[in-house]
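REVIEWER CHECKLIST
Item 1: Sequence provided? yes
Item 2: Single chain? yes
Item 3: Sequence as submitted:
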Amino acid sequence: MIKAVVFDVGGVLCEWESICRVFAGEAGLNSKEFLDIFIKFSLDPETGSDLGLMTTDEFFAKLSVAVGVPEKAQDWRKRFIPGFIRIEPTYVLVDELKGKYTLALLTNAKIGLWDEWVEGRLKDYFEIIVDSSEVHAVKPNPKIFKILLDRLQLPAEECLFIDDFLEYTTAAEKLGFNTVHFTEPEVGIKAIKNKLGTL
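Item 4: Structure as written out by the authors:
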């Protein structure tokens, strides 16, 4: 029986790649090239921002230099979080689930990112938030999933984990989680409801 529903943020509750596509254009790169560099600096095991090893300001300074537009560092930093877009159908689902399940977040994120994204109101919706920058581990490392389970005080088999990265849902499945690979809202929400037996 599923007792906890665990959401990723980016790609599930929040669309963040649009603003990165804008930045890519400003750097004269295609979106894939830009996102590859963005993710590399986010997840680097020695300096990654999502491991809490550099600040968001430092991240954008490093990123802007790497893509050849160092003058964009502060501008991109200011525009990044305001460029996030709530995925409203997911929020409707979260409202439906609140009070019926323990709701949690498991997110790879930069230091203070979700506190800055005021529009997301994440702390209003989610009882437990496991943020990679705070625990110094990122998905798909089993360590971060084990931290989540410790905080939930539940076995993996009683949790449903939702993420837009197949690599991360696959890692969770190996640990015993129920999972949904969230590709787009209509399909993803239907899959979540199917897993919960609410359709």
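Item 5: Key structural point noted by reviewer: The chain has two domains: 4-14+85-196, 17-83.
Item 6: Recommendation: ____
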